[in-house]
């Protein structure tokens, strides 16, 4: 797809070399020559030695770089040393038991379809290379929680800089009238106080001041099945009410050309409205609010395709896609994500803010719900995620889509692979 970086990283070439070798076993000399051929390096260049370090010891810079990535694969548990064999490594049989976070500069295409691509790596490393026009970025970034989830995240003090830094390269590629949608948390409190943090307000102002984004709306995601929170201030000290919503913020780079269209997300009319349309509308004349609103005969009689949604989304967090992801991740022996959005959230905004063929991105991909919704709606997509196991589990949800391809080296991640 157009959004894919032009060159797969050296890390990916090394991983693929092991995957393509007999039984996943490769000695270092074979690794060097195989990778050199893949990246177009001549044997002469591979053997060229350059003084390295203070001692000026002659070393091959290409081989040094290959060995560095090889050690990264070892740390991830993807390859292991062959016992009793010097300089010989093989694919591990038990990779992927713990969460492995992508190192800086390491990017790896995890899986792809005809429409999209999921990349393991830091979002900054990926999106700085992307020049394709982006229509929508929709994401649920890590929240600045006092006790971070397993996948980590920044604290409140650095959160504004973190989000602005993540979005800057995406905003640079955003088409005129494109949108940024962020699902954040309102359950962040001042240290040792029952008062809520103002980090959301600071973030909104920073996105406008630093990146030139205009706030189109604040849309509460109401979820009455949320666990009671904040536990300490609501359930223990009894000074707060339990939260039943999360804020979703919608921004654009150009309100005059914003590409939203509420006709793409119309909802079914109520039974009462359907009766009114069938009868030709209201039969009475009434005035409300000192004449500000008038009800005339025939009102609500025009037959329309549906009603315009309110700017409040009511959804539970239960989701059949989440249940399927968990089943498949457990079957593979992979850890599951601790905070998953229902696919219906990105589905709504993708329909509302994009058209078929547009590019939708998510820099904090998690279990790739954004990609899943985009795939079903015929949009191109690009997702990055820095935890390898989440992507490997999510890949199982895409196997039935056209052009699905899993990185061969990652077929070994998980006990059942």
Automatic annotation (TrEMBL):
This is Methyltransferase. It comes from Acidithiobacillus sulfurivorans. Keywords: Methyltransferase, Transferase. Residues 134-391 form the DNA methylase N-4/N-6 domain. It is an enzyme of class 2 (transferase). Pfam families: N6_N4_Mtase (PF01555). Its EC number is 2.1.1.-. InterPro entries: DNA_methylase_N4/N6, RM_Methyltransferase, SAM-dependent_MTases_sf. Gene3D superfamilies: Vaccinia Virus protein VP39. Belongs to the N(4)/N(6)-methyltransferase family.
């Amino acid at each position: 797809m157009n959004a894919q970086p032009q060159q797969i990283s050296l890390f990916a070439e090394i991983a693929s070399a092991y995957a393509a070798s007999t039984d996943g076993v490769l000695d270092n000399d074979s690794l060097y020559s195989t990778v050199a051929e893949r990246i177009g390096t001549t044997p002469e260049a591979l053997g060229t030695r350059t003084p390295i370090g203070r001692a000026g010891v002659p070393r091959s810079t290409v081989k040094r770089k290959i060995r560095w990535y090889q050690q990264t694969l070892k740390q991830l548990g993807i390859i292991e040393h062959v016992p009793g064999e010097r300089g010989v490594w093989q694919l591990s049989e038990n990779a992927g038991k713990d969460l492995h976070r992508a190192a800086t500069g390491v990017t790896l295409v995890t899986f792809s379809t005809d429409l999209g691509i999921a990349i393991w790596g830091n979002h900054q490393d990926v999106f700085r290379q992307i020049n394709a026009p982006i229509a929508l970025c929709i994401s649920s970034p890590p929240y600045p929680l006092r006790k971070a989830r397993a996948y980590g995240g920044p604290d409140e003090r650095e959160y504004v800089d973190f989000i602005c830094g993540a979005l800057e390269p995406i905003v640079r590629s955003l088409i005129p009238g494109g949108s940024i949608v962020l699902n954040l948390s309102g359950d962040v409190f001042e240290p040792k106080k029952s008062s809520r943090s103002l980090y959301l307000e600071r973030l909104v102002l920073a996105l406008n001041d630093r990146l030139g984004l205009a706030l189109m709306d604040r849309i509460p995601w109401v979820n009455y099945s949320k666990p009671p929170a904040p536990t300490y201030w609501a359930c223990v000290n009894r000074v707060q009410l339990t939260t039943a919503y999360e804020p979703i913020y919608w921004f654009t780079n150009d309100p005059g050309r914003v590409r939203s269209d509420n006709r793409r997300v119309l909802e079914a009319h109520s039974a009462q409205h359907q009766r009114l349309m069938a009868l030709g509308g209201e039969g009475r004349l009434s005035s409300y609010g000192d004449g500000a609103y008038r009800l005339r005969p025939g009102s609500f009689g025009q037959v329309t395709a549906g009603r315009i949604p309110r700017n409040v989304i009511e959804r539970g967090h239960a989701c059949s896609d989440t249940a399927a992801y968990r089943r498949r991740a457990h079957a593979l022996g992979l850890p599951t994500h601790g905070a998953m959005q229902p696919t219906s959230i990105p589905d709504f905004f993708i329909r509302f803010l994009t058209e078929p063929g547009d590019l939708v991105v998510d820099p904090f991909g998690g279990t790739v719900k954004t990609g899943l919704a985009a795939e079903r709606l015929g949009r191109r997509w690009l997702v990055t995620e820095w935890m390898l196991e989440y992507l490997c589990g999510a890949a199982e949800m895409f196997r039935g889509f056209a052009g699905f391809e899993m990185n061969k080296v990652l077929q070994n991640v998980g006990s059942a692979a």
